[in-house]
């Protein structure tokens, strides 16, 4: 999930929190699923978890972040504390997500369609990508739960930036309790002495959770997340109305022909059986833009972004909530140009559908929508 420290440190709450809003409001290319033990979902029906993460850079004083999570099967509340900064709070009341900072008068709210607390909020916070060739080196107890201790290493990539140098030595304490089968403690250290340590310091499972924790504060006015449209406009609604654009849900078909009048298309080696009825067409679009795209402050690259009208965004959100594991396919001129696996909730306020690819290909697609673009 584009959070290197989280992948290898298990419980780096700060990095997860920074990307949580983006992950609920954006569709991204499918990434490898995090491995968090033998059980896919926690069986605890409720819980209270407090974790602490410290990052050491050489001899400098460590950066320390504390996260406090309350959850049930349908609601959650996450508070993140950083020294000398106001706490950041994020609350899901079963229907809407709210995010604000302590003592703030304004906050953000959005409605992630089909959000499931345990797999979509709790699991990503405490999951850890399985290290290649990791070895089990012992057992221990963390926060009152039995854990298996694993050790492994990871080399810094030749290209791209990571927080460590050379070889990273990782130790992971992974819970073997089926109620909460996640990483409860982890350490990661490189040859230069830089290291990250994360640990669950308090854990209570299947406990009563006060309803008041899941009520947004009345003193805060909540607004939809602000949207900034960047880059270059490719085509507005009037030009898009004449373009053959469609967005479908689809299934990967290993062999044979699709039934029920479904169309079969091929993209990047996958055979995709499209649902007969599209979720959106060119009449559902407000505009198309070539704009920077990525989860962090530094864009990962450029994307051709299709902007949906509000009604079409709501249709896509509700349909995607029932389509985990399926593909969201974009057609331009009848040709499939993007197939994204549906693996996260889609907020009804999310009206961006990005198409990724090399710059030359994106420019070609832009000119299919508007032959005069760039001339």
Please trace the helix and strand order, writing H or E for each element. HHEEEEEEEHEEEEEEEHEEEEEEHEEEEH
pLDDT averaged residue by residue: 84
Overall shape: it is: globular
- Work out the number of β strands: 24
CA radius of gyration is: 22 Å
Q: Which percent range fits the helix content?
A: 10-25%
Low-confidence stretches at least 5 residues in length (pLDDT < 50)?
Answer: 1-39
Note the total helix count. 6
Largest β-sheet summary: 12 strands, mixed
* Backbone structural class: mainly beta
In spatial order, strands of the major sheet run 8-9-10-11-12-1-2-3-4-5-6-13
**% residues in beta strands:** 35-45%
Q: How far apart are the first and last residues' alpha carbons, in Å?
A: 37 Å
Question: How is this structure best described in words?
Answer:
The chain has 375 residues and is mainly beta. Helix content is 15%, strand content 41%. The strands form 4 sheets. A 12-stranded mixed β-sheet has the order 8-9-10-11-12-1-2-3-4-5-6-13. Strands 15, 16, 17, 18, 21 and 22 form a 6-stranded antiparallel β-sheet that branches. Strands 14-19-20-24 form a 4-stranded antiparallel β-sheet. A hairpin with a 4-residue loop joins strand 4 (88-92) and strand 5. It is globular, with a radius of gyration of 22 Å.
């Amino acid at each position: 999930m584009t959070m290197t420290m989280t992948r290898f440190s298990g419980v780096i709450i700060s990095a997860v929190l920074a990307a949580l809003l983006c992950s609920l409001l954006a569709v991204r290319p499918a990434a490898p699923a995090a491995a968090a033990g033998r059980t896919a979902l926690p069986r605890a029906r409720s819980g209270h978890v407090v974790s602490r993460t410290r990052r050491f850079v050489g001899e400098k004083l460590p950066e320390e972040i504390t996260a406090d999570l309350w959850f049930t099967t349908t609601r959650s509340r996450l508070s993140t504390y950083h020294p000398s900064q106001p706490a950041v709070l994020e609350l899901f009341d079963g229907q809407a997500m709210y995010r604000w900072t302590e003592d703030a008068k304004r906050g953000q709210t959005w409605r992630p369609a089909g959000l499931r607390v345990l797999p979509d909020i709790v699991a990503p916070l405490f999951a850890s990508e399985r290290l290649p060739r990791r070895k089990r080196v012992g057992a221990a107890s963390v926060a009152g739960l039995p854990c298996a201790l694993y050790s492994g290493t990871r080399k810094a990539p030749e290209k791209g930036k990571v927080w460590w140098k050379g070889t990273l030595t990782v130790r992971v304490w992974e819970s073997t309790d089926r109620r909460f089968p996640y990483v409860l403690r982890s350490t990661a250290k490189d040859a230069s002495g830089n290291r990250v340590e994360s640990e669950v310091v308090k854990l209570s499972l299947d406990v009563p959770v006060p309803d008041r924790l899941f009520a947004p504060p009345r003193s805060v006015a909540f607004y939809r997340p602000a949207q900034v449209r960047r880059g270059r406009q490719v085509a507005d609604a009037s030009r898009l109305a004449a373009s053959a654009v469609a967005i479908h849900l689809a299934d990967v078909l290993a062999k044979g022909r699709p039934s029920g009048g479904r169309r079969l298309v091929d993209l990047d080696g996958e055979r995709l059986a499209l649902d007969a009825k599209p979720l959106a067409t060119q009449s559902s679009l407000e505009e198309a833009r070539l704009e920077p795209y990525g989860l962090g402050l530094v864009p990962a690259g450029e994307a051709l972004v299709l902007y949906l009208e509000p009604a079409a965004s709501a249709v896509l959100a509700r349909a995607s909530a029932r389509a985990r594991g399926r593909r969201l396919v974009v057609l331009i001129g009848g040709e499939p140009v993007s197939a994204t696996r549906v693996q996260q909730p889609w907020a009804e306020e999310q009206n961006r559908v990005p198409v990724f690819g090399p710059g030359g290909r994106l420019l070609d697609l832009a000119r299919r929508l508007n032959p005069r673009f760039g001339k």
